[in-house]
Specification:
Helix 1 runs antiparallel to helix 2. With about 400 residues, the chain is an alpha/beta fold. The longest helix is centred in the N-terminal third of the chain and has 34 residues. The protein has 17 helices and 5 strands. About 5% of the residues have low confidence. It is globular and about 60 Å long. It has a 5-stranded parallel beta sheet with strand order 2-3-4-1-5.
Length: about 400
């Protein structure tokens, strides 16, 4: 379970670093090396977490080590939240104000004394966390952990399908409407006949569910002659993906033994047709792997769409997405509604009312992640009282 804390932290660290570089804003001076070191330490620790989780049951020293790691992770989470908040404040401070004179201080205008101290405070906290994590990383070597592929990682990459009951999708009304309008839009300003749209967000945030919702929406179904769903996952297996596309287009792969034959078949099959292709859970940033598919798919009719779901914004840019939709956490109320759908199934109303308070506390720990709410709700479905 510790990996469920460490993995999002790694994603957040990489995301913040990417945003700082993209905006060319050095909010916390001199922190680049510290972030690089933090990321390196977290990855080294993450590699042995599966073994540590298994050994903590019998070894108290390993359990204490994991507790130390949890505490350090929570401290890091707080520091990163402060960093994100400070970046938002910086953006507000830098917004143009026509009637007021603008002064400058290094790369930022008129940042108050409090903002400067806040920056130093964040830098100091990250430095202290790094020192603590250094100790934790050194201690890990004493246990001679084995590097075992995470079972969590495997479970997160279960093959998705296009099937869903649209009426059961909770919340996300704004994102649903945005995605649907982008899929149905036929802009004459598009440079390519086929437009690529990417849904980007952390694992468990609900990207696949949104894609399934759009794929099965009646208006979307009526707008495309062909619809294709492929779970890409990791590694990016070009041959398997090409076969899946051919099969969804109604073709047979029996006589297509070469990758080139499959790609040519795709190119010919979609010629002059308006299609929707969903590529779910894309990880690779290697353009060379994507390029053959891009060439074959750009043969579709104007208005065709490729919908990509990915955890990495870099993947969306590599695939030359015309639209990148960032998927944020669910609101607490939406998360609670999803949790109750699973945890409160077939319970009498009186029992649900008694469990309302503790349900809200549990949902608060889900941090707005629908997968967490759904998983915990399913696990608690048969727990009959508060103590359980």
């Amino acid at each position: 379970m510790v990996d469920a804390i460490v993995s999002p932290l790694l994603e957040q660290l990489i995301s913040i670093s990417y945003e700082e570089a993209k905006q060319q804003v050095r909010l916390v001076i001199g922190v680049k090396k510290q972030v690089k070191k933090l990321t390196s330490n977290l990855r080294a620790i993450q590699a042995v977490l599966n073994d540590a989780e298994q050994r903590q049951v019998k070894e108290k020293s390993v359990r204490l080590w994991l507790d130390q790691l949890k505490e350090a992770s929570y401290d890091m989470e707080d520091a990163l939240d402060e960093w994100i908040t400070a970046r938002l404040k910086l953006r507000i401070d830098q917004a143009p104000a026509p009637k007021k004179p603008v002064c400058s201080f290094l790369v930022s205008p008129c940042i108050g004394v409090k903002q400067v101290f806040l920056r130093r405070d964040i830098a100091q906290k990250i430095k202290e966390i790094n020192e603590n994590l250094d100790d934790i990383a050194r201690q890990k070597d004493m246990f001679n952990f084995n590097v075992i592929r995470s079972t969590t990682e495997k479970s997160e990459r279960i093959q998705s399908t296009s099937l869903i009951i649209v009426s059961e999708v909770r919340g996300r009304d704004e994102e649903k409407n945005i995605l649907k309008s982008r899929l149905l839009c036929e802009s004459s300003e598009q440079h390519n006949a086929v437009q690529i749209i990417s849904l980007v967000g952390m694992g468990g945030i609900g990207k696949t569910t949104l894609a399934q919702f759009a794929y099965n929406d009646k208006d979307v179904i009526d707008s495309f002659e062909k619809r294709i769903w492929v779970c890409v996952s990791d590694p990016f297996d070009e041959f398997r993906i090409a076969k899946a596309i051919v099969e969804d287009l109604g073709g047979s792969v029996r006589d297509l033994g070469e990758f080139n034959s499959l790609i040519k078949h795709i190119h010919e099959s979609i010629s002059g047709k308006r299609f929707l292709l969903v590529l779910d859970d894309v990880w690779t940033e290697d353009y060379n792997k994507w390029e053959p598919f891009r060439y074959s798919l750009m043969n579709g009719l104007h208005g065709s769409k490729i919908l990509v779901t990915t955890r990495k914004e870099t993947v969306a840019h590599m695939m030359e997405s015309a639209d990148v939709i960032s998927i944020k956490e669910l609101s607490e109320q939406e998360c609670l509604s999803l949790f109750k759908r699973f945890a409160f199934a077939n319970r009498p109303l009186s029992e649900c009312e008694k469990l309302e308070e503790i349900s809200r506390k549990i949902v608060g720990k889900c941090k707005g992640l629908p997968l967490a709410a759904k998983t915990l709700g399913s696990l608690l479905r048969f727990k009959r009282n508060r103590e359980e």
